[in-house]
Write a structure and sequence with these properties.
The chain has 126 residues and is mostly helical. The chain folds into two domains: 65 residues, Winged helix-like DNA-binding domain superfamily/Winged helix DNA-binding domain (Arc Repressor Mutant, subunit A, Orthogonal Bundle), CATH 1.10.10.10; 43 residues. The chain starts with 5 loop residues before the first helix and ends in a 10-residue tail after the last helix.
Length: 126
């Protein structure tokens, strides 16, 4: 799972928060709304291309411009990052236990309820 730089993380957050894809110009406009110093269009284009190379964004041609959208949800991306953390540890159980210790009682209860649910039957092949 590729690590995100700070600007890449900003772009991903912006795109995850939208209900539709966005052009580089739209991303630039939204990013520059809250900035002290404006970003250059070419900087945003480069970040979008890098995120595409990391398979986090897909792009499609719409008119003369490319439009970008995430390939995975924010939650799927977070789960991928957790899997990566577990994969790098020699003691997965210890990592998991330390993580659970940081969870609120409500979060633990929700996980417990999910684990106790009735499993769905496997799909039959036809």
């Amino acid at each position: 799972m590729p690590r995100l730089g700070s600007l890449e993380a900003e772009v991903m957050a912006l795109l995850w928060n939208r209900d539709r894809d966005a052009s580089a110009r739209e991303v630039l406009t939204e990013l520059n709304r809250d900035r002290v110093g404006p970003l250059a269009y070419t900087t945003v284009q480069t970040v979008l291309q890098n995120l595409g190379r990391k398979a986090l964004l897909e792009r499609r041609k719409q008119g003369r411009a490319f439009h970008y959208r995430p390939t995975r949800t924010r939650e799927q991306h977070a789960a991928d990052l957790l899997r990566e953390v577990f994969a790098t540890s020699d003691d997965r159980e210890s990592v998991l236990l330390h993580f659970v210790e940081t969870m609120s009682a409500a979060e633990v209860e929700r996980v417990r309820a999910w684990l106790d649910r009735e499993p769905e039957p496997p799909e039959r092949s036809r």
